[in-house]
Amino acid sequence: MANKNYPHPVLSSYTDDFDPSKAKFDIKISKKIDRMNYQLLCDVVLEEENLKDLLNKGKLAFVVKVICSTTRYRNVFQFNDLEYLIIIPAFLLEKRVEITTFIVATEQINNYSSLLFNEDYGDASFTVFQGDVLAEGSEYKFNVDKQIDPLVKVPSIFSIVYSDSNQAPPIDVRHIEEKIVVTLNKENFQKYKYLKGLQNQFGNLAALTSSLFILPGLITVVDEMRRELMELNGDFEAIKDFIEEKENEHRWYKVINARLLDKGIKLSEPVNITESSLVIAQKLLGDPLSNGLQFFDEILEASEEDVI
User: Fold this and answer.
1) Residue 18: its pLDDT value, please?
2) Checking DSSP bridges between strand 96-105 and strand 109-112, what pairing results, if any?
């Protein structure tokens, strides 16, 4: 940020556009891990009356940009409250994450000025356009916590696509070398995209979406894996060679098998026959059904707040 130039004053610790003893802006972000999600709690510090006034009029917004180059995840979160919670499904992030913070104009502002501008600006005013940056806060970088890698890698091996065919079933599952592909018909795929778009607003919606679209695919795959292994009739060497071959051919197989071992589950052992593929798939995904059903509690709480 320090090397950026703007055609108007920007409140930032990198510039002297404002009186630093009286004008301040920052968004302090603290990170927490909650089951399958990263929670980013944003606390805004803003000390500049003109910017506060423009914010109250709806002409400005706080912005947090989150980028993960490894997974190509990029998202911009825009809000107006001094406290804001960002929830990101953990499987969308790997290795390193970069965060930048701003205040931006949400509409054109004519005659933008402030009593706290640097005295060099005198009585100057500026025209600010929608999307222009008016303040810059802190930058953050963090490494993804490896402790939750076994949990989050299972959803990452799934790809959800749609079929153009008018005879396409509501949902179907197949697997290729790298991914397990869940195919939806057009109508269901549109609903899936709609739910994905709402996940930033509701912390438990990602888990509910996972239970609707990923869980059925994982059940199918676990069924196939255990059937193939049971056909080897407990032959230890044959099982070992079979798993090694499968892991070399298919990344998804390696990820799922690693997660199974992490949970102490060996599909080839008779002791695991008593557990259904549904129960096992739920364990691999961290119980998305129970977590996802809490989404409806969020909806009810939001409705009650609206009524109040």
Assistant:
1) 94
2) unpaired
For the beta carbon of residue 238, count every other beta carbon within 10 angstroms.
14
- b (16+ CB within 10 A) / e for 141-154: eeebeeebbbbbbb
Is 0.85 topped by the overall pTM?
A: no
The tens digit of pLDDT for each residue in 18-57 reads 998 899 999 999 988 765 678 899 999 999 999 999 999 9
- CATH assignment of 24-144, given 3.30.310.10, 2.60.40.10, 1.10.10.10, 3.30.470.30? 2.60.40.10
206: how many CB neighbours lie within 10 A of its CB? 28
CA angle 31, 155, 79 (to 5 degrees): 40
Q: How far is Cα 237 from Cα 75, in angstroms, rounded to an integer?
A: 47
The tokens describing 204, both together, are: 């438990």
Residue extents of the structural domains in the chain: 24-144, 146-308
Question: Bridge partners of 30?
Answer: 41
